[in-house]
Specification:
Helix content: 25-40%
Strand content: 15-25%
Radius of gyration: 15 Å
Low-confidence stretches: none
C-alpha cells in the first residue's frame, strides 16, 4: 500500500487488483504529460468475468452497476501502473462507459453510476468527472460493461 488513496480503498474493503493483461495490441494505460488514459477496462476479477451477457436481459441493471464498480477499480490499477502512486491523481477528468444493452434497455447512466460513485468515494471532490454512458450491441468477451478513465496527475 502507498498513500491516502489506497488507504481509502482499504477502508472501503477494496484492494487494487493486478493490471489485466491486454486482450489485443494495446497498453492498459498510457501517460502523456500530466494525463493518464486507460484502455477499456472490463469487470475482470482474477482474470475472469463474473457475469456475461446483455444488461436488461441476462444481467440486471443492479448487477451491471456492481460490474461497473469493478471496472473502475481495474482502471485505478491501470492508472497506478503508469503513475506510480494514486496520490498523484489531481482529478478524474472523464469516464466513458459502454453497456452491452438489450434492445429496450435505457438505463446506461444508472449502470455507470457504479464507476462514478466509486471514484467519488475514493477521490472525494477530485473524483467528480465528466462522463458518457453509451449503449452498445456487444463488448469483448461478452462483458456487460466496460469503462475508460482519463485522469490528470499532479505536475512533476
Amino acid at each position: 500500500m502507498s498513500g491516502a488513496v489506497e488507504a481509502r480503498l482499504t477502508a472501503l474493503g477494496l484492494t487494487l487488483p493486478q493490471v489485466a493483461a491486454p486482450l489485443a495490441a494495446y497498453q492498459p494505460a498510457v501517460r502523456t504529460g500530466v494525463y493518464v488514459y486507460t484502455a477499456g477496462q472490463l469487470p475482470l476479477v482474477e482474470g475472469t468475468l463474473p457475469l456475461t451477457g446483455k444488461v436488461g436481459a441476462e444481467v440486471t441493471a443492479e448487477e451491471a452497476k456492481e460490474l461497473a464498480r469493478t471496472c473502475a477499480l481495474n482502471a485505478l490499477a491501470a492508472v497506478k501502473s503508469v503513475a506510480g502512486d494514486l496520490d498523484r491523481v489531481a482529478r478524474v477528468v472523464k469516464v466513458t462507459g459502454f453497456v452491452a444493452s438489450a434492445a429496450d434497455f435505457t438505463g446506461q447512466p444508472g449502470v455507470l453510476n457504479g464507476a462514478s460513485e466509486l471514484l467519488g468515494e475514493v477521490f472525494g471532490d477530485k473524483g467528480v468527472h465528466a462522463r458518457s454512458a453509451v449503449g452498445v450491441a456487444v463488448l469483448p468477451l461478452d462483458a456487460p460493461v466496460e469503462i475508460e478513465v482519463l485522469v490528470e496527475l499532479v505536475a512533476d
